[in-house]
Amino acid sequence: MPISNTLMNLFGPSPFKPLQAHMRVVVQCAGNVPRLFDALCDDDRKEMKKIRDEIFTLENKADEIKNELRSHLPKSIFMPVDRRDLLEILDLQDSIADTAQDIAGMLMVRRPKVLDSIREPLTDLTQRCVDACNQMAAIMEHLDELVETGFRGPESDVVVVMIDELNRIETDTDQKGIAVLRELFAHESEIDPVSLMVWHRLIHWVGDLANYSEKVGNRLRLLVAH
Q1: Number of CB atoms found within 10 A of residue 192's CB
Q2: pLDDT 10s digits, 139-169
Q3: Can you give the CATH number for the domain in which 120 is found?
Q4: Domain count along the chain
């Protein structure tokens, strides 16, 4: 039997490919959020339902990959990454898809009043949060190389730089979230209290797309640091 096959039997099926596959689905899920808010601002309920269904389908697909990976995650002591670290990264990634689903579900249950003045800052916020998800997805594509090099060397340096950029993007989303809230509260007399409450929750969730992405990046940073 070839040595490579023997090693594969020893280490078990690699969990890194499905972890990357999971992130690809997650980022597709989050990528629909700006489209959803565009449809809300355009008062296009048919398009909102279509996008909601796409988000729910992708979230279910992400759950399937997550559950499959959890069920078959190797317990071998020879894994190059601690099993708990992989499960934590998986859960954080999955939280991104869950949050996108929460946003879609909320908007179908309760459509808050939309002010013309918040459309631009809201678009800036949602797109920047998706930028954070995309940056995290790009980082995850380096996972194979990181594992091969033991999270050391030039490849780890590249990933650290990418994580630094992810942190900058997340900080930017915080500022953009404040800008949307500032605009909402500047016109709160024009918005019913329930809509104001819903907007506050939605903006928090949109920000979470970037927050969870940053947490995944910081978890990988710890692996590189070790």
Answers
A1: 11
A2: 999 888 887 777 778 888 899 999 999 999 9
A3: 1.20.58.220
A4: 1
